[in-house]
Write a structure and sequence with these properties.
binds magnesium ion; 6 helices; binds adenosine monophosphate; 24 strands; alpha/beta; 6-stranded mixed β-sheet; single chain; about 20% helix
C-alpha cells in the first residue's frame, strides 16, 4: 500500500531530468498534455518537455518520476476543454520522487499489520478497510452474569429505607465488564437466604453465561450464604486470598459455570475484579496483551501495610522527571470516593509492613498514562 505510485499534491506530473538546473533566473517551460483526476488510470506517456496536470491521489503517468505542486508553478495558458494549463513555468529545481507516494511506501506484502489477540482499534479498522477487508474473525464478547447479595441492598431507582443502601456493585461491575469488552447481564439482588441465592444463580445458568460474578455474602458473617451455596451446589475451589482489600474472595463453579465471589465492599469488589476477573475475561476474549498498565513510582509519603498484598488508592503525578505517588483519600474498602479520586492503585507487595517515603512501588494505572498530571516544581 499504496498499490500504485500516486501524487501527494495537486500539481503537475513531470520528468525531473527536465527540471534539474532550473532557477528563478532560468525557469523551465513545460507543455501540459494531459489531465489526471483521482480515480483514473493515466495511459499518456510523458515525454521530455511535457507534463500532466495531476490531482492528489491520482496515479502517476508513465514517463513521469516527480510531481511539482501547483503553487510552485505559474500557469502560462489554460485549456478551456480540459481545464488544464496548456503550459506551465517552473522556477524551482525538482528531484525524482518529489511529492510522490511510491507503491509500497506504507507497507508491503508480507509485512505484519495486526497481531492476533489484540483489540481492534479505530485505526486498525481503517487499515483493514484500506485492504478491502470488511469482515475478520474475532472472539465473541464474553457474557458475564452479575449479581449482588444482601438484605440491605436496594436497586438504584427505588427509595432506600432506614439501614438500607443502594446496590452500587451491580452497576460498577457491569461497567467494568463493558469497559473490558464483555457483555454484562444483571441478575439482580439475592436476599440473605439460601433459596434466594440459588434461584438468582440459576437465572445465570438459564442465560447460558460464560461466567458469574457475584459480590458480598462470602465473608464469615451469620448471613453470608453465597459461599455456602457454591460449596453445596457447585464447587468451591478457593476461598480467602492474601489481598487487601479483597481477602474474602471466593472462586469455583456453579453448575459448571466459572464463579467469582467478590467481597461486598465496593472497593474490594473493584480490586478483586481487576486482579482475578479481568485476566479470566482476557483469556475468554483471546486477548494476549495484559489488561493493566503498570508504572514504577516513588512514594511521597510513608505507607503502613498489614503484610497482605495491598492495592491502595493512590494519586500519581509527574514531578521533575519522575513519577511520584501519594494516597488518594481514606483507604477504607467501603469508600468509593477515594477510588474515584485515584488515578492508580499503589501495589504494596505481600510481606511488606511499612515503606518509608522515597520507596519505589508499582502502580496500576486506572486511566491512561496521558492523564497523569505534571506537578513539577522549579
Ligand atoms: P458482606 O460481604 O455481605 O458482609 O458485605 C460487606 C459490606 O459490603 C457490607 O457493608 C455490605 O453492606 C456492603 N455491600 C455488599 N454488597 C454491596 C453492594 N452491592 N453495593 C454496595 N455495598 C455493598
Ligand atoms: Mg451481606
Amino acid at each position: 500500500m499504496p498499490a500504485f505510485s500516486n501524487s501527494s499534491m495537486d500539481g503537475f506530473a513531470v520528468r525531473a531530468s527536465d527540471l534539474a538546473g532550473v532557477s528563478p533566473q532560468r525557469p523551465a517551460h513545460l507543455h501540459v498534455i494531459a489531465d489526471i483526476p483521482a480515480g483514473t488510470v493515466p495511459f499518456t506517456m510523458i515525454g521530455p518537455g511535457e507534463a500532466a496536470r495531476i490531482m492528489t491521489g491520482a496515479a502517476l503517468p508513465p514517463g513521469a518520476d516527480a510531481v511539482i505542486p501547483v503553487e510552485d508553478t505559474q500557469y502560462k495558458s489554460f485549456d478551456q476543454d480540459t481545464g488544464a494549463a496548456g503550459h506551465i513555468e517552473i522556477a524551482k529545481p525538482v528531484f525524482a520522487g518529489d511529492y510522490l507516494r511510491p507503491a509500497g511506501q506504507d507497507f508491503r506484502s508480507g509485512d505484519l499489520l495486526l497481531r492476533a489477540g489484540s483489540d481492534l482499534r479505530p485505526a486498525d479498522v481503517g487499515l483493514l478497510a484500506t485492504l478491502g477487508i470488511g469482515f475478520v474473525p474475532v472472539n465473541k464478547r464474553s457474557r458475564v452474569a452479575v449479581l449482588s447479595s444482601g438484605d440491605e441492598l436496594v436497586p438504584v431507582g427505588q427509595p432506600v429505607g432506614p439501614g438500607e443502601i443502594y446496590d452500587a456493585n451491580s452497576l460498577m461491575l457491569s461497567a467494568l465488564i463493558h469497559q473490558n469488552g464483555g457483555e454484562a447481564l444483571l441478575l439482580g439482588i439475592a436476599r440473605d437466604n439460601e433459596h434466594s441465592v440459588r434461584s438468582i444463580l440459576d437465572r445465570g445458568v438459564d442465560l447460558d453465561v460464560d461466567m458469574i460474578v457475584s459480590s458480598a455474602g462470602v465473608s464469615i458473617g451469620a448471613y453470608d450464604y453465597v459461599r455456602q451455596v457454591i460449596q453445596e451446589q457447585g464447587n468451591l475451589q478457593l476461598w480467602r486470598v492474601n489481598l487487601r482489600p479483597g481477602k474474602p474472595f471466593a472462586y469455583g463453579d456453579y453448575k459448571g459455570i466459572p464463579f467469582f465471589g467478590l467481597p461486598g465492599n465496593p472497593v474490594s469488589a473493584y480490586v478483586t475484579f481487576e486482579v482475578f476477573v479481568l485476566p479470566a475475561m482476557n483469556i475468554l476474549h483471546g486477548r494476549r496483551q495484559s489488561g493493566n498498565r503498570v508504572a514504577s513510582v516513588i512514594l511521597r509519603q510513608a505507607i503502613e501495610s498489614d503484610g497482605r498484598e495491598s492495592y491502595l488508592r493512590g494519586w500519581i503525578a509527574r514531578s521533575n522527571g519522575q513519577l511520584v505517588a501519594s494516597l488518594a483519600g481514606h483507604q477504607g474498602s467501603a469508600n468509593l470516593k477515594a477510588l474515584v479520586d485515584a488515578n492508580a492503585f499503589l501495589v504494596i507487595p505481600s510481606g511488606v509492613k511499612s515503606l518509608p517515603a522515597g520507596s519505589r512501588v508499582d502502580a496500576w494505572l486506572i486511566g491512561s498514562i496521558e492523564d497523569i498530571p505534571d506537578e513539577s516544581v522549579d
